[in-house]
Amino acid sequence: MGASSANCKAAGLDLDCISCPKGVDAKTRKVQSPFKTGVLNEGGSAGSNTDVRYVFEDGATYVGEWIGEHRHGHGIHTEADGSCYEGQWVDDKAHGHGKLLHSDGASYEGEWCYNLKHGQGTYLHKDGSMYVGQWANDSQSGKGSEVWADGTMYIGQYVEGQKHGQGSYSWPHGSKYEGSFEKDEIHGDGRYMWSDDHVYHGQWQRQAMHGNGSFTYPDGRSYEGQYVQSLKHGDGTQTWPDGRKYVGQWHKGEQHGLGTWTEGGSSVSCRWNMGVKTDEINVDV
Known about the structure:
single chain, disordered N terminus, Histone H3 K4-specific methyltransferase SET7/9 N-terminal domain, 285 residues, mainly beta
């Protein structure tokens, strides 16, 4: 994970993959409504405010409270495939607190607004992955936390089902990113800490180190300067723990252009061509 040799050039590091699962499927089945055909076969009439059982023509059932011909109050709606919603109803729609259990074992429990997940809620996938947080119009929106079955975790802000805003993302092998996200990607200012103790703190653009930033290595080296697509590019300074130092221009991860190299108390300004010193300009002792 990255260059470990203490030479003048600094290769770009391969970032751990951030293209993780994008959260729960916002297009989960809606609770069915209204009933138009069917047979009321148990427990009273669909005009009372008491619990009655209604069987739909497709085999779905509802047991609960009514107002007129609308499910209203507490009730349980079960589909023919076994999926089931139990909770509050208003005007024939899931509204208030309720739990939706899918036939494959996935579930959502929390607040609803007219058949849409809206407010605080928890979505549990059949593989054990889970989202806990805020929802708006059937999508993760607001503050939430998501844990995947392999231990990967995100805590932060969501907009319309995507990681967007400030958040932290950690991998099971120990790497972690803290900072800004945009549309499910690392973008903006943030700090990325690799499991082997490499650390980058600075600007990002679409998953890549891009802009001004600082990078520290576990062997004591450090770089501060400009990046383009995760490579040192532009003006930057790299130092070594034994006192060596390069200050100057970089191109695609290599010293390239004008720069000053310091070693053993002496500095030399010269031209560089893709990591190779080509033309000494002056020497100060």
